[in-house]
Amino acid sequence: MAGRIDRDALIAPYDVVGHPPAPDLTALAELAADLSGTPTAIVNLMGESKQHSVATYGRFEPGVCNRSDSMCNVILDEPGQVIINDTLDDPRFADNPYVTGERANFRFYAATHLRNPQGQVLGTLCVFDDEARSLDDRRIRGLGLLARQVDDALELRRRTSKLVDAVAELAEVRAELTRSNEALHAFAGQVSHDLRNPLTAINGFLEELQYNVPHDTPSSEYVARALSSTHRMSDLITDLLGFAKLGGELRREPVMLRNLVEEVRHDLAPALTAVGAHLDVGPLPTVRVDATQIRAVLQNLISNAAKYRHPERPPLIAVHSARQDHAWRIEVVDNGIGVPRDRREEAFSPLTRVHDPHDSSAEGAGIGLATARRIITAHGGQIGLDASPSGGTVAWFTLPDPTEGGPLGGPPTPRSARVF
Questions:
Q1: Strand ranges of the sheet holding 82-84, from the earlier edge strand across to the other edge
Q2: Which of 125, 193, 374, 399 could form an SS bridge with 147, CB 3.0 to 4.6 Å?
Q3: Model pTM score
Protein backbone atom coordinates (compact mmCIF):
# COMPACT_ATOMS: atom_id res chain seq x y z
CA MET A 1 0.00 0.00 0.00
CA ALA A 2 1.43 3.36 -1.05
CA GLY A 3 2.13 5.85 1.72
CA ARG A 4 0.16 9.05 2.08
CA ILE A 5 1.45 11.93 -0.04
CA ASP A 6 2.29 15.23 1.67
CA ARG A 7 0.86 17.51 -0.98
CA ASP A 8 2.46 20.68 0.39
CA ALA A 9 5.87 18.98 0.19
CA LEU A 10 5.02 17.66 -3.28
CA ILE A 11 4.42 21.08 -4.82
CA ALA A 12 6.95 23.12 -2.79
CA PRO A 13 10.00 22.36 -5.01
CA TYR A 14 8.33 24.04 -8.00
CA ASP A 15 8.78 27.43 -6.33
CA VAL A 16 5.60 29.00 -7.73
CA VAL A 17 3.34 29.16 -4.68
CA GLY A 18 3.45 32.60 -3.09
CA HIS A 19 5.29 34.17 -6.03
CA PRO A 20 4.01 36.40 -8.87
CA PRO A 21 2.61 34.32 -11.74
CA ALA A 22 5.30 32.97 -14.04
CA PRO A 23 4.99 34.37 -17.59
CA ASP A 24 5.38 30.95 -19.22
CA LEU A 25 2.55 29.45 -17.15
CA THR A 26 0.33 32.49 -17.79
CA ALA A 27 0.94 32.14 -21.54
CA LEU A 28 -0.05 28.46 -21.43
CA ALA A 29 -3.25 29.35 -19.55
CA GLU A 30 -4.08 31.86 -22.27
CA LEU A 31 -3.43 29.25 -24.95
CA ALA A 32 -5.75 26.83 -23.13
CA ALA A 33 -8.54 29.43 -23.10
CA ASP A 34 -7.99 30.25 -26.76
CA LEU A 35 -7.93 26.61 -27.81
CA SER A 36 -11.09 25.72 -25.90
CA GLY A 37 -12.91 28.95 -26.80
CA THR A 38 -13.57 29.68 -23.12
CA PRO A 39 -13.08 33.00 -21.31
CA THR A 40 -11.23 31.56 -18.33
CA ALA A 41 -8.30 29.18 -17.83
CA ILE A 42 -6.38 28.42 -14.62
CA VAL A 43 -3.27 26.48 -13.64
CA ASN A 44 -3.94 25.03 -10.17
CA LEU A 45 -1.58 23.25 -7.78
CA MET A 46 -3.14 21.27 -4.94
CA GLY A 47 -1.66 21.54 -1.44
CA GLU A 48 -2.83 19.75 1.70
CA SER A 49 -5.77 22.02 2.40
CA LYS A 50 -5.46 24.81 -0.16
CA GLN A 51 -5.75 25.14 -3.92
CA HIS A 52 -3.15 27.51 -5.34
CA SER A 53 -4.10 29.18 -8.61
CA VAL A 54 -0.57 30.01 -9.79
CA ALA A 55 -1.41 31.28 -13.29
CA THR A 56 -4.71 32.47 -14.76
CA TYR A 57 -6.30 33.93 -17.86
CA GLY A 58 -9.62 35.78 -17.77
CA ARG A 59 -11.40 37.55 -14.93
CA PHE A 60 -9.81 35.55 -12.12
CA GLU A 61 -6.53 36.59 -10.53
CA PRO A 62 -3.98 34.12 -9.14
CA GLY A 63 -4.85 33.30 -5.56
CA VAL A 64 -5.66 30.70 -2.94
CA CYS A 65 -8.87 28.99 -1.92
CA ASN A 66 -9.85 26.09 0.29
CA ARG A 67 -9.60 22.74 -1.44
CA SER A 68 -13.00 21.86 -0.06
CA ASP A 69 -14.53 24.62 -2.22
CA SER A 70 -12.54 23.74 -5.32
CA MET A 71 -14.10 22.07 -8.34
CA CYS A 72 -10.72 20.55 -9.26
CA ASN A 73 -10.46 18.89 -5.85
CA VAL A 74 -13.53 16.81 -6.69
CA ILE A 75 -11.90 15.24 -9.74
CA LEU A 76 -8.33 14.99 -8.44
CA ASP A 77 -8.46 11.19 -8.33
CA GLU A 78 -10.22 10.74 -11.67
CA PRO A 79 -8.12 8.62 -14.08
CA GLY A 80 -8.23 10.93 -17.11
CA GLN A 81 -9.47 14.24 -18.47
CA VAL A 82 -12.79 15.49 -17.09
CA ILE A 83 -15.21 17.32 -19.39
CA ILE A 84 -18.46 18.62 -17.86
CA ASN A 85 -20.67 20.17 -20.52
CA ASP A 86 -23.22 21.45 -17.98
CA THR A 87 -22.25 21.55 -14.31
CA LEU A 88 -25.90 21.84 -13.21
CA ASP A 89 -26.50 18.34 -14.58
CA ASP A 90 -23.64 16.85 -12.53
CA PRO A 91 -24.48 16.17 -8.85
CA ARG A 92 -20.80 16.57 -7.93
CA PHE A 93 -20.88 20.25 -8.88
CA ALA A 94 -24.50 21.41 -8.65
CA ASP A 95 -23.99 22.81 -5.13
CA ASN A 96 -20.41 24.06 -5.60
CA PRO A 97 -19.96 27.77 -4.79
CA TYR A 98 -18.26 28.28 -8.16
CA VAL A 99 -21.42 27.02 -9.84
CA THR A 100 -24.23 28.39 -7.65
CA GLY A 101 -23.21 32.02 -8.01
CA GLU A 102 -21.72 32.37 -4.55
CA ARG A 103 -18.30 32.80 -6.14
CA ALA A 104 -18.93 32.24 -9.84
CA ASN A 105 -21.50 30.85 -12.27
CA PHE A 106 -19.49 28.25 -14.14
CA ARG A 107 -21.64 26.01 -16.32
CA PHE A 108 -18.90 24.46 -18.42
CA TYR A 109 -15.80 22.88 -16.86
CA ALA A 110 -12.90 20.88 -18.33
CA ALA A 111 -9.78 19.77 -16.44
CA THR A 112 -6.59 17.89 -17.27
CA HIS A 113 -4.29 16.64 -14.53
CA LEU A 114 -0.79 18.03 -14.11
CA ARG A 115 1.77 15.41 -13.13
CA ASN A 116 5.39 15.25 -12.05
CA PRO A 117 7.87 12.86 -13.79
CA GLN A 118 6.87 10.13 -11.31
CA GLY A 119 3.21 10.39 -12.39
CA GLN A 120 1.97 12.00 -9.18
CA VAL A 121 -0.85 14.53 -9.61
CA LEU A 122 0.28 18.07 -8.83
CA GLY A 123 -2.93 19.87 -9.81
CA THR A 124 -4.89 20.72 -12.94
CA LEU A 125 -5.06 22.82 -16.05
CA CYS A 126 -8.73 23.76 -16.23
CA VAL A 127 -10.97 25.94 -18.39
CA PHE A 128 -14.38 27.45 -17.52
CA ASP A 129 -17.32 29.14 -19.18
CA ASP A 130 -20.50 30.68 -17.79
CA GLU A 131 -22.45 28.94 -20.54
CA ALA A 132 -22.91 25.23 -21.14
CA ARG A 133 -20.95 23.99 -24.13
CA SER A 134 -19.11 20.99 -25.55
CA LEU A 135 -15.65 20.40 -26.98
CA ASP A 136 -14.75 18.26 -29.95
CA ASP A 137 -12.05 15.61 -29.73
CA ARG A 138 -9.40 17.84 -31.32
CA ARG A 139 -9.82 20.54 -28.65
CA ILE A 140 -9.88 18.00 -25.85
CA ARG A 141 -6.68 16.45 -27.15
CA GLY A 142 -5.14 19.92 -27.48
CA LEU A 143 -5.88 20.67 -23.81
CA GLY A 144 -4.13 17.42 -22.92
CA LEU A 145 -1.05 18.46 -24.90
CA LEU A 146 -1.03 21.90 -23.27
CA ALA A 147 -1.18 20.24 -19.84
CA ARG A 148 1.98 18.31 -20.74
CA GLN A 149 3.60 21.63 -21.63
CA VAL A 150 2.63 22.95 -18.20
CA ASP A 151 4.21 19.81 -16.69
CA ASP A 152 7.45 20.57 -18.55
CA ALA A 153 7.42 24.24 -17.53
CA LEU A 154 6.94 23.31 -13.88
CA GLU A 155 9.67 20.67 -14.02
CA LEU A 156 12.05 23.18 -15.61
CA ARG A 157 11.35 25.59 -12.75
CA ARG A 158 12.00 22.82 -10.20
CA ARG A 159 15.30 21.87 -11.76
CA THR A 160 16.36 25.50 -12.17
CA SER A 161 15.59 26.18 -8.52
CA LYS A 162 17.54 23.10 -7.52
CA LEU A 163 20.46 24.17 -9.69
CA VAL A 164 20.46 27.66 -8.19
CA ASP A 165 20.56 26.15 -4.70
CA ALA A 166 23.38 23.80 -5.72
CA VAL A 167 25.41 26.68 -7.20
CA ALA A 168 24.92 28.71 -4.04
CA GLU A 169 26.01 25.75 -1.92
CA LEU A 170 29.07 25.18 -4.11
CA ALA A 171 29.95 28.86 -3.80
CA GLU A 172 29.83 28.54 -0.02
CA VAL A 173 31.97 25.39 -0.12
CA ARG A 174 34.47 27.07 -2.43
CA ALA A 175 34.69 30.08 -0.16
CA GLU A 176 35.27 27.81 2.83
CA LEU A 177 37.92 25.84 0.93
CA THR A 178 39.64 29.08 -0.02
CA ARG A 179 39.68 30.14 3.62
CA SER A 180 40.94 26.70 4.65
CA ASN A 181 43.69 26.74 2.03
CA GLU A 182 44.79 30.20 3.10
CA ALA A 183 44.86 29.06 6.72
CA LEU A 184 46.79 25.93 5.73
CA HIS A 185 49.35 27.95 3.79
CA ALA A 186 49.77 30.39 6.66
CA PHE A 187 50.09 27.55 9.16
CA ALA A 188 52.61 25.68 7.00
CA GLY A 189 54.68 28.82 6.54
CA GLN A 190 54.69 29.56 10.26
CA VAL A 191 55.55 25.97 11.16
CA SER A 192 58.31 25.94 8.55
CA HIS A 193 59.78 29.13 10.01
CA ASP A 194 59.48 27.94 13.61
CA LEU A 195 61.10 24.59 12.83
CA ARG A 196 63.87 25.86 10.59
CA ASN A 197 65.29 28.35 13.08
CA PRO A 198 66.27 25.85 15.78
CA LEU A 199 67.17 23.27 13.14
CA THR A 200 69.57 25.71 11.50
CA ALA A 201 71.19 26.37 14.86
CA ILE A 202 71.52 22.64 15.58
CA ASN A 203 73.01 22.05 12.15
CA GLY A 204 75.53 24.85 12.69
CA PHE A 205 76.64 23.49 16.03
CA LEU A 206 77.02 19.99 14.57
CA GLU A 207 79.11 21.27 11.65
CA GLU A 208 81.34 23.14 14.09
CA LEU A 209 81.61 20.01 16.19
CA GLN A 210 82.49 17.93 13.14
CA TYR A 211 85.60 20.02 12.57
CA ASN A 212 86.72 19.55 16.17
CA VAL A 213 86.36 15.80 16.71
CA PRO A 214 88.97 13.31 15.52
CA HIS A 215 88.17 11.58 12.26
CA ASP A 216 87.49 7.87 12.11
CA THR A 217 86.28 7.74 15.69
CA PRO A 218 82.86 6.82 17.15
CA SER A 219 82.32 10.48 17.98
CA SER A 220 82.83 11.58 14.37
CA GLU A 221 80.41 8.89 13.22
CA TYR A 222 77.78 10.07 15.71
CA VAL A 223 78.18 13.66 14.54
CA ALA A 224 77.88 12.57 10.90
CA ARG A 225 74.69 10.67 11.68
CA ALA A 226 73.25 13.65 13.55
CA LEU A 227 74.05 15.95 10.61
CA SER A 228 72.42 13.50 8.24
CA SER A 229 69.32 13.53 10.45
CA THR A 230 69.14 17.32 10.41
CA HIS A 231 69.41 17.30 6.62
CA ARG A 232 66.56 14.81 6.39
CA MET A 233 64.50 16.92 8.78
CA SER A 234 65.14 19.99 6.63
CA ASP A 235 64.02 18.07 3.55
CA LEU A 236 60.89 16.93 5.39
CA ILE A 237 60.00 20.50 6.34
CA THR A 238 60.47 21.56 2.70
CA ASP A 239 58.27 18.69 1.50
CA LEU A 240 55.54 19.47 4.03
CA LEU A 241 55.52 23.13 3.02
CA GLY A 242 55.31 22.11 -0.63
CA PHE A 243 52.44 19.71 0.13
CA ALA A 244 50.51 22.54 1.77
CA LYS A 245 51.03 24.95 -1.12
CA LEU A 246 51.00 22.85 -4.30
CA GLY A 247 47.76 22.01 -6.05
CA GLY A 248 46.08 25.30 -5.16
CA GLU A 249 45.90 28.02 -7.79
CA LEU A 250 46.67 26.76 -11.28
CA ARG A 251 48.23 28.72 -14.14
CA ARG A 252 47.06 26.68 -17.10
CA GLU A 253 48.79 27.09 -20.43
CA PRO A 254 49.65 24.82 -23.38
CA VAL A 255 52.61 22.72 -22.27
CA MET A 256 54.57 20.10 -24.21
CA LEU A 257 54.99 17.30 -21.71
CA ARG A 258 58.06 16.01 -23.53
CA ASN A 259 59.84 19.28 -22.78
CA LEU A 260 58.99 18.91 -19.09
CA VAL A 261 60.37 15.36 -19.07
CA GLU A 262 63.59 16.53 -20.72
CA GLU A 263 63.97 19.21 -18.06
CA VAL A 264 63.48 16.56 -15.39
CA ARG A 265 66.01 14.32 -17.15
CA HIS A 266 68.55 17.15 -17.02
CA ASP A 267 67.94 17.90 -13.33
CA LEU A 268 68.09 14.23 -12.35
CA ALA A 269 71.06 13.40 -14.59
CA PRO A 270 73.54 12.92 -11.69
CA ALA A 271 71.14 10.64 -9.80
CA LEU A 272 70.20 8.66 -12.92
CA THR A 273 73.82 8.26 -13.97
CA ALA A 274 74.86 7.17 -10.48
CA VAL A 275 72.56 4.15 -10.60
CA GLY A 276 73.02 3.43 -14.34
CA ALA A 277 69.40 4.27 -15.16
CA HIS A 278 68.18 4.49 -18.76
CA LEU A 279 65.25 6.83 -19.44
CA ASP A 280 63.20 6.21 -22.58
CA VAL A 281 60.69 8.93 -23.55
CA GLY A 282 57.90 8.10 -25.99
CA PRO A 283 55.49 10.46 -27.76
CA LEU A 284 53.79 12.79 -25.29
CA PRO A 285 50.92 15.26 -25.83
CA THR A 286 50.60 18.98 -25.41
CA VAL A 287 48.06 19.79 -22.72
CA ARG A 288 46.79 22.82 -20.84
CA VAL A 289 48.28 22.51 -17.37
CA ASP A 290 50.29 24.34 -14.76
CA ALA A 291 53.79 23.54 -16.02
CA THR A 292 55.54 23.99 -12.67
CA GLN A 293 53.21 21.69 -10.81
CA ILE A 294 53.06 18.94 -13.47
CA ARG A 295 56.85 19.09 -13.71
CA ALA A 296 56.97 18.42 -9.95
CA VAL A 297 54.78 15.33 -10.48
CA LEU A 298 56.97 13.99 -13.29
CA GLN A 299 60.15 14.62 -11.31
CA ASN A 300 58.76 12.74 -8.33
CA LEU A 301 57.63 9.73 -10.37
CA ILE A 302 60.86 9.47 -12.40
CA SER A 303 62.97 9.96 -9.28
CA ASN A 304 61.03 7.18 -7.52
CA ALA A 305 61.55 4.88 -10.51
CA ALA A 306 65.32 5.31 -10.15
CA LYS A 307 65.34 5.29 -6.36
CA TYR A 308 63.34 2.09 -5.86
CA ARG A 309 65.44 0.04 -8.27
CA HIS A 310 65.90 -3.72 -8.24
CA PRO A 311 69.31 -4.70 -6.82
CA GLU A 312 69.93 -7.26 -9.57
CA ARG A 313 69.35 -5.14 -12.68
CA PRO A 314 69.96 -1.58 -13.90
CA PRO A 315 66.91 0.72 -13.80
CA LEU A 316 64.97 0.98 -17.06
CA ILE A 317 62.41 3.79 -17.05
CA ALA A 318 59.92 4.62 -19.78
CA VAL A 319 57.58 7.60 -20.00
CA HIS A 320 54.73 7.38 -22.49
CA SER A 321 51.09 8.38 -23.04
CA ALA A 322 47.78 7.09 -24.36
CA ARG A 323 44.34 8.51 -25.05
CA GLN A 324 41.69 7.53 -22.50
CA ASP A 325 38.18 8.81 -23.32
CA HIS A 326 38.51 12.63 -23.07
CA ALA A 327 41.79 12.53 -21.17
CA TRP A 328 45.46 11.69 -21.56
CA ARG A 329 46.96 8.92 -19.46
CA ILE A 330 50.65 9.46 -18.74
CA GLU A 331 52.66 6.49 -17.47
CA VAL A 332 56.09 6.20 -15.87
CA VAL A 333 57.04 2.50 -16.12
CA ASP A 334 60.03 0.95 -14.35
CA ASN A 335 61.56 -2.47 -13.70
CA GLY A 336 62.26 -1.83 -10.03
CA ILE A 337 61.13 -3.50 -6.83
CA GLY A 338 57.46 -2.60 -7.29
CA VAL A 339 54.82 -1.71 -4.72
CA PRO A 340 52.73 -4.42 -3.02
CA ARG A 341 49.15 -4.41 -4.34
CA ASP A 342 47.64 -3.89 -0.88
CA ARG A 343 49.80 -0.84 -0.23
CA ARG A 344 49.48 1.07 -3.51
CA GLU A 345 46.70 3.34 -2.30
CA GLU A 346 48.44 3.83 1.03
CA ALA A 347 51.50 5.14 -0.83
CA PHE A 348 49.58 8.37 -1.55
CA SER A 349 49.00 9.16 2.13
CA PRO A 350 51.25 11.86 3.61
CA LEU A 351 54.20 10.62 5.68
CA THR A 352 53.66 7.04 4.52
CA ARG A 353 56.50 4.83 3.24
CA VAL A 354 55.52 1.48 1.77
CA HIS A 355 59.07 0.10 1.55
CA ASP A 356 61.39 -0.99 4.32
CA PRO A 357 62.57 2.24 6.03
CA HIS A 358 65.91 0.56 6.84
CA ASP A 359 66.53 -0.13 3.15
CA SER A 360 69.00 2.43 1.80
CA SER A 361 67.03 2.54 -1.47
CA ALA A 362 63.92 3.63 0.39
CA GLU A 363 65.05 7.08 1.45
CA GLY A 364 62.34 9.73 1.50
CA ALA A 365 59.81 11.38 3.78
CA GLY A 366 56.66 9.94 2.22
CA ILE A 367 55.41 13.30 0.98
CA GLY A 368 56.11 13.13 -2.78
CA LEU A 369 53.20 10.95 -3.92
CA ALA A 370 50.78 12.76 -1.61
CA THR A 371 51.82 16.04 -3.21
CA ALA A 372 51.53 14.51 -6.69
CA ARG A 373 47.95 13.42 -5.97
CA ARG A 374 47.11 16.89 -4.67
CA ILE A 375 48.39 18.43 -7.90
CA ILE A 376 46.72 15.96 -10.27
CA THR A 377 43.40 16.21 -8.41
CA ALA A 378 43.56 20.01 -8.71
CA HIS A 379 43.93 19.52 -12.48
CA GLY A 380 40.80 17.34 -12.56
CA GLY A 381 42.71 14.09 -13.11
CA GLN A 382 43.49 10.88 -11.26
CA ILE A 383 46.71 9.17 -10.23
CA GLY A 384 47.57 5.62 -9.22
CA LEU A 385 50.05 2.77 -9.16
CA ASP A 386 49.95 -0.56 -10.99
CA ALA A 387 52.42 -3.41 -11.54
CA SER A 388 54.61 -3.34 -14.65
CA PRO A 389 55.16 -6.50 -16.74
CA SER A 390 58.67 -6.84 -15.25
CA GLY A 391 57.39 -6.72 -11.68
CA GLY A 392 58.22 -3.06 -11.21
CA THR A 393 55.78 -0.16 -11.03
CA VAL A 394 53.55 1.71 -13.46
CA ALA A 395 52.96 5.14 -11.93
CA TRP A 396 50.20 6.76 -13.97
CA PHE A 397 48.12 9.92 -13.96
CA THR A 398 45.43 11.38 -16.19
CA LEU A 399 44.98 14.93 -17.44
CA PRO A 400 41.60 15.99 -18.90
CA ASP A 401 41.73 17.01 -22.54
CA PRO A 402 38.55 18.67 -23.92
CA THR A 403 39.67 18.22 -27.53
CA GLU A 404 38.25 15.30 -29.49
CA GLY A 405 41.44 14.64 -31.39
CA GLY A 406 45.03 14.53 -30.23
CA PRO A 407 47.01 17.20 -28.42
CA LEU A 408 45.34 20.57 -28.98
CA GLY A 409 43.27 19.09 -31.81
CA GLY A 410 46.02 17.05 -33.50
CA PRO A 411 45.99 13.30 -34.21
CA PRO A 412 45.99 10.90 -31.24
CA THR A 413 49.42 10.14 -29.83
CA PRO A 414 50.23 6.40 -29.84
CA ARG A 415 51.41 4.53 -26.74
CA SER A 416 55.14 3.89 -26.64
CA ALA A 417 55.88 0.35 -27.80
CA ARG A 418 58.61 -0.21 -25.22
CA VAL A 419 57.45 -2.18 -22.17
CA PHE A 420 59.67 -3.48 -19.41
A1: 63-66, 50-57, 40-46, 121-129, 108-115, 82-84
A2: 125
A3: 0.49
